[in-house]
Amino acid sequence: MNTIDPHRLQELVRDPDQLLRQLGGDGVSFRTGPLPDPSEAASPRAVALCCSDMRELPERILGSAFGPISTLQSAGALLTPTMEASIRYALATTDARVLVVLGHLRCRLLEHCWAGRPRPFVLEDLLEPAFQEARRIPGGNLDDVVEVTARYNARRARDLAQSLRSSLGRDVAVVVAIYDDVEHRVTLSAADDGSRVPQPPLSAGGVDVQ
Question: Does residue 26 sit within a domain?
C-alpha cells in the first residue's frame, strides 16, 4: 500500500482527488492484493489521548519515545465519557503500560474558551475545573491553561488507570506531555508531578526519552 509523507498531509487533504490518487488509484490499493497478516501488527506499547486540533501527527511526536501507540483524539485532549470508554477498551485489549495525555501549545479550542467566548456545552464541565485552577496562577496565560488542562485530565486518567489495575493485572503509568509546535519540543512529566522535564527538539522520528 502506498504511504503519504506526513509533511505533505496538510497539502493533500485540501484536494481530495489528489489524496485518493496518492493513496493509489482512487483507493484501489485498499480493495486488491493480499490482506496483511494481523499477527505482524505490533501491539501498542502506549495509549495517547491527544487533541483533535493537533497540527503534527501524534505518532511522530511520541513514536520513538514509546514505540507503537494507540491514538485517541478529542477536542482539547479532554477526557470525555467517550474517551474514557475508548481508553478502557485500549488498555483491556493491548499490553500498553503507559497512558499519555498530550496537550499542545496554541490549542485553538482552549484559546477560544479562555478568551471568554461561548464554550461547547458538552465540554463545560470538563473545562471549568481546569480553568479555575489556571485563574489562580499569577499572570496566567494560554500556555498555563494548556498545561493545567492537560494535568487535570491526566489526574482523571490516572484515577481511571488505578481503578482498572486489578482487572488489567498490571499498573499503567500516566504521563503528561506538552508539545510546542513552533519549537518542535515536547515536555514530559508524571501526572501527579508539577515538575517539567524538557526534551530535545524532535528529530524525524520524534522525541527520545531515556
Answer: yes
Of 44, 55, 51, residue with least CA distance to 101: 51
- Tell whether 208 is covered by a domain: no
Q: Are 8 and 55 found together in one domain?
A: no
Tell whether 206 is covered by a domain. no
pLDDT tens for the chain, 210 residues long, are 344 455 555 555 566 666 556 555 444 544 555 555 554 456 788 899 999 887 777 878 886 667 788 899 998 899 999 999 999 999 999 999 999 999 999 998 888 888 887 776 667 778 888 888 888 888 888 889 999 999 999 999 999 999 999 999 999 999 999 998 888 888 888 776 544 433 333 333 333 333
**Closest listed residue to residue 52, CA positions, set 93, 108, 3:** 108
Same domain, 16 and 47: no
- What is the Cα–Cα distance from 65 to 188, expressed in whole angstroms? 11
- Tell me the CATH number at 66: 3.40.1050.10
How many whole angstroms separate alpha carbon 29 and alpha carbon 36?
12
Distance CA 68, CA 91 (A): 14
Residues 109 and 139 in one domain: yes
Sequential DSSP letters for 71-89: EEEEGGG---HHHHHHHHH
Same domain, residue pair 62 and 13:
no
Decide if 177 contacts 161 (C-beta within 8 A).
no
The kind and range of the H/E element at 46 are strand 46-51
Q: Which three cell numbers stand for residue 171?
A: 499498573
